[in-house]
UniProtKB/TrEMBL annotation:
<dbReference type="InterPro" id="IPR023210">
    <property type="entry name" value="NADP_OxRdtase_dom"/>
</dbReference>
<keyword id="KW-0521">NADP</keyword>
<dbReference type="InterPro" id="IPR020471">
    <property type="entry name" value="AKR"/>
</dbReference>
<protein>
    <recommendedName>
        <fullName>NADP-dependent oxidoreductase domain-containing protein</fullName>
    </recommendedName>
</protein>
<keyword id="KW-0560">Oxidoreductase</keyword>
<feature type="domain" description="NADP-dependent oxidoreductase">
    <location>
        <begin position="39"/>
        <end position="105"/>
    </location>
</feature>
<comment type="similarity">
    <text>Belongs to the aldo/keto reductase family.</text>
</comment>
<dbReference type="GO" id="GO:0016616">
    <property type="term" value="F:oxidoreductase activity, acting on the CH-OH group of donors, NAD or NADP as acceptor"/>
</dbReference>
<dbReference type="Pfam" id="PF00248">
    <property type="entry name" value="Aldo_ket_red"/>
</dbReference>
<dbReference type="InterPro" id="IPR036812">
    <property type="entry name" value="NAD(P)_OxRdtase_dom_sf"/>
</dbReference>
Length: 119
């Protein structure tokens, strides 16, 4: 298993996905819902919220389901019992159009630590 930052604003390259798939490496996402609840939060993204409204689910559920449909293992975290309960309900299947719309979000942003600063 390989744990990597993965969300619509930081999707990793298709080559990375191909290498991992061919090596049978399971990918686990962190920062699945982005960073804090600031203005650039994924939970506020227009595309994510349009899809959430379409399926009558939360933005968090859209993000988690999208990661699952992209074959990532996810472990969402929350400090509230209600959100934890909601995060477990990711049964709604996103359409190919939904997944494509999320895959094509143009905004790029990394929410976790920057390797250039650490190394």
């Amino acid at each position: 298993m390989l744990i990597v930052e993965f969300h619509p604003y930081f999707q990793q390259s298709s080559e990375f996905h191909k290498v991992c798939r061919n090596a049978k490496i399971v990918l686990q996402a962190y920062c699945s819902m982005g960073g804090s609840a600031g203005k650039n939060s994924l939970l506020n993204d227009e595309v994510i919220n349009r899809i959430a409204k379409k399926h009558s689910i939360s933005a968090a559920q859209v993000l988690l389901r999208w990661a699952i449909q992209r074959n990532y293992a996810i472990i969402p975290k929350s400090v509230t019992a209600e959100r934890i309960k909601i995060n477990f309900d990711v049964e709604t299947e996103l359409t190919k159009e939904d997944v494509d719309d999320i895959n094509n979000i143009k905004h790029k942003e990394k929410f976790a630590w920057e390797p250039e600063v650490i190394a």
